[in-house]
Design a protein that fits this description.
- This protein has about 300 residues and is mostly helical.
- Helix content is about 75%, strand content about 0%.
- The chain is built from 15 helices and no strands.
- Helix 11 runs antiparallel to helix 12.
- The longest helix has 23 residues.
- The protein starts with 10 loop residues before the first helix and ends with a helix.
């Protein structure tokens, strides 16, 4: 059933894609009920999912839906950092597990102890207490990629920018994106990121120009707004995810992908009811359009959300 929507892809890619979706399913189930075993399984499944995603993207597969799901898993994990760390047995247990299983990793889902430090630092700053927190140094380098994969200047630039943002260095993040644009000046994804970061810095005019350039280089306005919505998912700006997907749906009301991404925005905003409604609409459209893969993903994710809601 899953293979019908992507017959043009090699069988190997389809098998890897099914494996990726299964890994993400495991992550979502683990997050629905966090205990010692599910917390460990979450970290292991997420690590393998990121590795598989990189391989599929390098092979030319379109994995935007899976990327959105995995990004949502990462954001939910960071929000539940304290609960996950406690389930693992505390910070020392997490660090030991990380050292044994994924030494040197830069995946944010493994750095939950650093996420707790960041939250505590922000709370102290709101109280006017400064200089009491020593931030852990983020591990340098990009997420490991097999040497046989071709270079990805856009992906590398975004990874570098994301790392700078974790250190609250907005100018550094903009500089990282500019470095990527020197190599791929027509990259819609990089132009979108630059627009977002310039907007955050207060440069609304420069942001508008960057968005216009990104839109001009995109295959279509639909793909531009979906791509920007996915960037907002990664940055945790769920209100903007909803805004951009609404823009798509106003012009393309039958876009199953837009409903899927908007569900992530609603889920991130805490509106589980609307997220489930969007996933149901996505599944209906995907089924009618013969997109069996997206149909299956929407139904599985909808079931996970309904199960999580029933457990509360």
């Amino acid at each position: 059933m899953f293979m019908m929507g992507k017959l043009s892809q090699p069988v190997g890619i389809l098998n890897e894609a099914d494996q990726l979706r299964s890994l993400i399913d495991d992550c979502e189930r683990a997050l629905a009920s966090i205990d010692s075993e599910s917390a460990r399984q979450l970290l292991l499944s997420a690590t393998e999912a990121y590795r598989t995603l990189e391989q599929l993207e390098a092979a030319g597969a379109d994995m935007r839906g899976e990327f959105a799901r995995l990004t949502a898993v990462e954001e939910r994990s960071l929000k539940s950092a304290g609960q996950i760390v406690r389930a693992l047995g505390g910070r020392a247990a997490l660090q030991e597990f990380r050292q044994q299983t994924a030494p040197g990793t830069t995946l944010r889902i493994w750095l939950l102890d650093q996420e707790l430090d960041r939250v505590r630092r922000n709370r102290l700053q709101r109280l006017g207490i400064t200089g009491l927190i020593v931030l852990l140094v983020l591990i340098a380098g990009y997420i490991a990629r097999p040497v046989l994969f071709p270079p990805d200047p856009a992906g590398d630039a975004i990874t570098a920018a994301d790392r700078e943002l974790q250190s609250d260095d907005l100018p550094g993040a903009i500089a990282a994106i500019d470095t990527g644009l020197l190599e791929v000046p027509t990259s819609t994804e990089l132009l979108i990121w630059k627009g977002i970061l310039l907007e955050r810095s207060g440069d609304t005019e420069g942001s508008a120009v960057s968005y216009e350039q990104g839109l001009a280089n995109a295959e279509s306005d639909r793909l531009f707004y979906l791509q920007r919505a996915l960037a907002f998912v990664r940055l945790g700006d769920y209100a903007r995810v909803i805004t951009d997907t609404n823009t798509v749906l106003e012009k393309y009301p039958d876009s199953a992908e837009a409903y899927y991404v908007r569900a992530t925005g609603y889920e991130g905003s805490g509106d589980r009811v609307q997220a489930i409604a969007d996933l149901e609409k996505c599944a209906d459209l995907a089924q009618a359009q013969g997109n069996d893969s997206l149909f299956a993903q929407a139904r599985v994710r909808m079931g996970t959300l309904m199960q999580a809601g029933a457990g509360q």
